[in-house]
Specification:
- The chain is α+β, with helices and mostly antiparallel strands and 276 residues long.
- The chain has three domains: 45 residues, no CATH class; 93 residues, no CATH class; 58 residues, no CATH class.
- It is built from seven helices and 16 strands.
- A hairpin with a 2-residue loop joins strand 14 and strand 15.
Length: 276
């Protein structure tokens, strides 16, 4: 119940709280404790909580991409989420249809995932998944997260691509070489230089079959390559004429103790004549 109080109306009635339940006049008294019978009483209606299944497409997108704004405006709780003047139960929030997602697929050996877009993939068992790109990260949809839908494969997939977009130097600590290669291949990435960009975060790599890992940062590749062609690499201390194989191709240490090889060779896939 809500009391509508008009100052002129109170003055007209000349109503003054008297002693109630032993309380003196000069003690504070809330309007809920003293309600003259002839005050106008207005019944308030509690906001209806909509079921998760009633969530519209536009509101679902807002939940998935603007959850920080929702948290700042309305806060977050364990039972409901508010979008505008609508409050939804988090139970039963719909999943984003697979058809709305874009494939995680390289174009010209570049992965580019745009913010506020959905992306889809199928796992090795053929199950379909939809992820959201937001705040320079690939992540599980927020609607799935708050409704308690947990998927380890989705979490791993997000972690994999997010690492690549920032710095995948130590990606081998989290993923096997086989898994790393499989995910890159499934996304259409081929041998040579490639890049991964999520939102505004971008990193460049070299796809290698050598011992340094499947994805070698381009800056690391450039440093090693330059040392081979300018004679500063430790490999250049071998005797002149020493044969080495890089990427399956033979190169000979020349009289200047340098290697003459094209940029883009898989310099991490290396063997020397001793191990051929």
């Amino acid at each position: 119940m809500r009391i509508t109080r008009n100052d002129d109306y109170w003055k007209y009635l000349n109503m003054r709280p008297k002693k109630i339940n032993g309380r003196k006049n000069n003690q504070s008294l809330s309007i809920d404790q003293y309600m003259p019978s002839d005050l106008h009483v207005m019944q308030t209606q509690k906001k209806k909580i909509l079921s998760g299944k009633e969530c519209t497409k536009a509101d679902l997108d807002y939940i998935n991409f603007e959850y920080m704004a929702i948290a700042e405006s309305y806060g977050l709780n364990v039972d409901t989420i508010t979008v505008g003047n609508r409050e939804y139960s988090i139970k039963g929030l719909p999943e984003v249809p697979y058809e709305r997602g874009e494939d995680i697929r390289a174009k010209n050996n570049a992965i580019v995932l745009e913010s506020k877009h959905y992306y889809r993939y199928k796992d090795e068992h053929g199950y379909k998944h939809v992820l959201a790109c937001n705040n320079n990260n690939l992540e599980r949809t927020f609607a799935d997260y708050i409704s308690g839908k947990w998927d380890e494969d989705e979490a791993d997939t997000c972690f994999f691509w997010n690492l690549l977009s920032y710095d995948a130097t130590y990606i081998g600590q989290y993923f096997s070489r086989e898994k790393e290669k499989q995910m890159l291949n499934d996304a259409g990435i081929t041998e040579g230089f490639f890049s991964v960009q999520i939102g505004k975060c971008k990193q460049e790599y070299y796809y290698s079959n050598g011992t340094a890992g499947q994805a070698v940062k381009k800056s690391h590749y450039d440093a090693f390559y330059n040392s081979l062609i300018d004679g500063t690499s430790s490999l250049c201390s071998y005797e002149i004429g020493k044969e080495f194989w890089f990427g399956g191709n033979k190169y000979v240490l020349n009289e200047n103790r340098k290697f003459n090889m094209p940029y883009g060779e898989d310099i991490y896939d290396m063997r020397n004549s001793m191990y051929r």
